[in-house]
Amino acid sequence: MTPNAAHQSPLTSDHRCPIRPAPATRVRPSTATLVVPLRHVNRNGIPKVSLDGISLSYKTNDGSQLLALDNINLRVKAGEFLCIVGPSGCGKSTLLHLIAGLQPATSGKVLIDDKQVEGTGTDRILIFQELGLFPWLTVGQNVEFGMKMKGISKAERNERTDYYLRLVHLTQFKDSYSHQLSGGMRQRVALARALASEPDVLLMDEPFAALDAQTRDLLHDELERIWSETGRTIIFVTHNVREAVRLGDRVALFTFRPGRIKREFVIDLPRPRQLEHVTVAKSAREILDHLREEINKSLEEQYGHEAVR
Amino acid sequence: MKRFAKHAIFYSVLVGVWLILAKLKIWPPYVFPTPRGVLDSLWAGFADHSFWIAIAVSMKRMLIGYSLSVVLGMVLGLGVASNKFLEETMGGLLVSLQSLPSICWLPLAVLWFGLTEKAILFVVVMGSLLSVTIAMETGRQQMPKIYGMAGRNLGAHGLKLFWYVLLPASLPYILSGLKQGWAFAWRSLISGEMIFVSLGLGQLLMMGRDLNDMSQVIAVMILIVVIGYLVDGLVFKTIERRLQHKWGLAPAT
Ligand SMILES: Nc1ncnc2c1ncn2[C@@H]1O[C@H](COP(=O)(O)OP(=O)(O)OP(=O)(O)O)[C@@H](O)[C@H]1O
Ligand SMILES: [Mg+2]
Fold first, then answer.
1. Which residue segment(s) compose the domain that B162 sits in?
2. Does residue A301 or residue B60 have the better pLDDT?
3. Is residue B203 assigned to a domain?
4. A238 close to ligand 1 (CB < 6 Angstrom)
5. Are residues B120 and B210 in the same domain?
6. ipTM
7. B252 in any annotated domain
8. Mean of the pLDDT values across residues B133-142?
9. Same domain, yes or no: B144 and B100
């Protein structure tokens, strides 16, 4: 399988205008209940992932409450590639933890196929920002872990482990421990570990942040290929707006604390896309303008007005 | 090699001084035995199997008692660590109980179990249980939360989560506690065996006293030290080295 094999996303349409805010967010502020646009639901009319009025506050050390997420409403249709961008500390990781079922929301519901999430489930696998590789296991054993927990037979586990290690180009490192790898290699192990569980929904928290440009491009291609071949639903958090435009069917932009969806952008560029391509750059610039507003807000909050000038 | 040479010099000097003091005959031999006498006692003890039997009996008690306290301590420690109320109340109690020499449990154990094997085991368990519990409790708190989350995320729950994730993840944090627990258990066992007749190394020690056989007393003491050292040096050091290799931790020097 060549990584660059031309493939057409089922979501790519022939719109002239390569980028536009999603209709729903255009007509209503993001805090109101989102009217689900048709293209974001699957054939049965049920979105794969659905967030209904999700809010979450953390208790801070001085005893007050910090509102990290404020009334998030989001639908992700089966097979959709959604990217989330937002300033640091806006609650992106928190949101992925909620969807993974690792912590409960203060209010609101997370629904998968219209069923409320009550905890973790192997239909949703999260690649943590901190990776969370197990240091007491080898690379191969890390990749195998989820399958072992599911009770998959040893033979199949071996086969799949080898397959996914090859995919991330780490076959020779199967018996290494994670501390013996570079940061980028560790990210690839985490990617292989998540893919090996073959979840319906893949939650990725800045998974390519520590990669060199070549490896990242390669993994973009691979991820896009896996996604289009397997029909997985992907929610992908990144700092890099270009990366979001390169990969996403849709980009959701979060506001700085409390995290809200400021705006959604539908990316109608044909696939496969190239990070360096001018249309990607153009779309990214538009989103970046909105993101910069939020980043400035966050800087103001942290350093006062002087810093922003 | 250099290290070995240093040790060789140190122990030759030690034995030399001992030899000279013994040769000077300042004290009678039943108070201050010669190295030769101790060596003879060791030889005789192994030759008539009494030392082998004592070691086997003591080690069996250690294995049973220590295993019990590791299992109990882990369950207790996890329980305490996962409950705020218990952590605040029982956490303090556990630490203060640790100041109690474990031999203090012997009268209680004898009243409960009589002069039986169970009483000895009870003392061994009480000697190491607290160390293991406290180690597990703090280990659980120090262990990065990400491992538990990653484990749950990949489908590990309940016992599987404990066995495949929480336990290995906390091992570097609890290893020193497990080691301390072993040392405490060893001491508790010997004191327990000394107090009531029950085979084992402790009893051999008391037998030496009863027979006024200072050579045997010293021989058994050497045995106790050597066994304690070997377990620490072979078993725990090996585990420690393997952990450091896997986790990429700096070797402790
Ligand atoms: N366990 C916690 N306790 C208290 N506050 C927390 C906790 N975890 C996160 N927060 C706060 O919640 C907010 C959102 O955190 P989160 O990690 O979700 O941000 P993020 O968008 O992923 O940021 P980044 O892009 O830097 O990773 C932050 O302001 C953070 O201080
Ligand atoms: Mg984050």
1. 33-247
2. B60
3. yes
4. no
5. yes
6. 0.78
7. no
8. 87
9. yes
Single-letter amino acid, residue B62: M
B253 in any annotated domain: no
Closest ligand to C-alpha of residue A90 is: 1
A to B CB pairs, distance under 8 Å: 63
A90 Cα: distance to centroid of ligand 1 (angstroms):
7
What are the angstrom distances between the C-alpha of B91 and each of A41, A229, B98, B143, B198?
52, 54, 11, 18, 35
- Please name every residue paired with A177 in a beta bridge, in sequence order, or none if there are none: A138
Instruction: Write the residue in B153, B154, B246 that is nearest to A136 by C-beta.
Output: B246
Do A177 and B247 count as a contact with CB atoms less than 8 A apart?
A: yes
pLDDT digits (tens, 9 = 90+) for B201-235: 888 888 888 888 888 899 999 999 999 888 888 88
The pLDDT value recorded for residue A174 is 93
Task: State if residue A262 touches ligand 1 by the CB under 6 angstroms criterion.
Answer: no
Please report, for the domain that includes residue B170, its CATH number.
1.10.3720.10
Q: Is A91 in the pocket of ligand 1 (CB under 6 A)?
A: yes
Do B100 and B37 belong to one domain?
yes
Specify whether B114 is located in the same domain as B25: no
Of B147, B154, B171, the CB nearest to A125: B154
Residues B1, B121: one domain?
no
Structure tokens at B50: 């009494």
Q: B135 with B205, same domain?
A: yes
Q: How many CB atoms lie within 10 A of CB A171?
A: 13
Residue of chain A nearest B152, judged by CA positions: A120
Tell how strand A233-237 and strand A201-205 pair up: parallel
Query: Is the shortest distance between the CB of A163 and ligand 1 below 6 Å?
Result: no
Among the residue ranges A175-189, A233-247, B238-252, the one predicted with the least confidence is B238-252
Residue A22 is predicted with a pLDDT of 44
What is d(CA A96, CA A237) in angstroms, rounded to the nearest whole number?
A: 8
Whether B148 is in a domain gets the answer yes
CB of A164 less than 8 A from some CB of B? no
Domain total of chain B: 2
pLDDT over threshold 80, residue A20:
no
- Taking the centre of ligand 1 as the mean of its atom positions, its distance from the CA of residue B111, in whole angstroms, is 57
Q: What is the pLDDT of residues A83-136, one digit of tens each?
A: 999 888 888 999 999 999 999 988 889 988 888 888 888 889 999 999 999 999
Determine the straight-line distance between the first and last CA of chain B, rounded to whole angstroms. Answer: 17
